[in-house]
Write a structure and sequence with these properties.
three-stranded antiparallel sheet, alpha+beta, Alpha-Beta Plaits
Length: 396
């Protein structure tokens, strides 16, 4: 007695039925469905998406700015028409047999493709959001997100193939399981890179911006990018070196991040003192040092060696230097004497960890050290040169 809505439409000739054999009739209905989907997508792009973007821009939270960025919203505007067409086609072309089957498969493939675009855009947005998080911004997570995109694309491709061959996706996954060995050989570097990237991230071994050194590879520079298959390093000579992530996991490398985050960068330079110039200070020299603050701990000693006086003086100079972190280890120590004299090592930390200021500081300290040594009757040991021999001949 009562008819359903689709039965009423079919009886009135508005829906396809078994007796609707006109190809032109079906084409017109297909155009109408596509036009309806286009209009829905147009409304989504012109009305809904601008409204969502306006609401997102006014919120205080920042996460929605990344998850609802223009790229994600644009992919949603492409996804909505595909969903509308996929839902409407079975109602319009019901009972048309081959037409319905073909159109459903085409709409499914369309839906899968735009779905892949949506999920890859969403993964990219989540990655950008993670780079702003304090605990995640320095982690090498780009490779993980790249692998997620590959998984999404692979699942989408399997979905498209399953629609084309009219087989269940699970059946295709089972068939792929038999070819897993071949796939592992094809994607060996990708799989190893993913595992290595997870290890680097989980153990916090490497971050973009780290200064690393790999002597075997001739690498000495700043990490600029860590992705699924490569680690890019900008060397100090402005050359770029790429190395697989698993190389950093399977072999050793130097990471200077802790030094960069610490209060200073270590300076360890030594000067060889001519042992024949080491002697006790004269009374005149002691009286000249008596009023100096740095000499106070040595005042009560009757005999003071000039090398000890120099160490006390220069240690005080290092502590007063504002470019040196005096809170960290600071000392002047003697190393094992040998045929080249007595090595005197200057051990301290530069407050500025940058390369150029660091090099300038240790050069200036060493220059002052060499200039001050003669004041205390000390001489630097160096092998005689042709000029020394010439001077000896002339003096004779």
């Amino acid at each position: 007695m009562f008819r359903t809505f689709d039965q009423w439409l079919r009886s009135e000739g508005y829906l396809m039925g078994e007796d609707s054999t006109s190809t032109l009739h079906r084409v017109l209905w297909l155009v109408a469905v596509l036009l309806f989907g286009y209009l829905v997508g147009l409304i989504c792009r012109r009305v809904v998406i601008p409204l969502v973007a306006k609401v997102v821009s006014k919120t205080k939270a920042t996460w929605d700015d990344y998850l609802f960025n223009p790229r994600v919203l644009r992919s949603i505007s492409h996804l909505v028409p595909a969903m509308v067409v996929y839902v409407v086609i079975p109602y319009v072309f019901i009972g048309t047999g081959l037409w319905l089957d073909i159109l459903l498969r085409i709409s499914q493939i369309w839906l899968i493709i735009v779905g892949i675009r949506f999920f890859t855009a969403l993964i990219s947005s989540v990655y950008e959001l993670s780079t702003q998080h304090e605990d995640l911004r320095d982690r090498p997570l780009k490779g993980v997100y790249q692998m997620l995109k590959i998984i999404v694309i692979c699942v989408g491709v399997i979905g498209v193939v399953s629609v084309l061959v009219n087989r269940s996706p699970l059946a295709l996954f089972t068939a792929l399981g038999a070819a897993a060995t071949v796939l592992m050989l094809i994607f060996k570097d990708t799989i190893i890179g993913l595992v290595a990237g997870v290890q680097l991230s989980a153990n916090d071994m490497l971050r973009p911006g780290d200064w690393i050194k790999i002597p075997k590879q001739g690498i000495d520079g700043m990490v600029t990018e860590v992705n699924l298959t490569t680690v890019k390093v900008l060397n100090w000579d402005n050359s770029v070196t790429t190395v697989p992530p698993y190389t950093l996991v399977s072999d050793s490398f130097e990471n200077w991040r802790v030094m960069q985050e610490s209060g200073g960068r270590r300076v360890k330079r030594s000067v060889n003192i001519d042992m024949q110039s080491i002697r006790f200070c004269t009374p005149e020299e002691l009286s000249a040092y008596a009023d100096e603050e740095w000499f106070a701990p040595l005042k009560d000693e009757k005999e003071v060696v000039n090398l000890r006086v120099f160490r006390a003086y220069f240690t005080d100079c290092l502590r007063r230097n504002p470019r040196i972190n005096a809170e960290l280890t600071l000392m002047i120590r003697q190393l094992q004497p040998g045929p080249q004299g007595l090595p005197l090592e200057l051990y301290f930390f530069s407050a500025d960890r940058s390369w150029i200021p660091y090099e300038m500081l240790q050069a200036e300290v060493l220059e002052v050290c060499l200039a001050v040594l003669p004041r205390f009757g000390l001489h630097v040991f160096q092998s005689p040169t042709g000029l020394d021999l010439e001077r000896t001949r002339i003096n004779q």
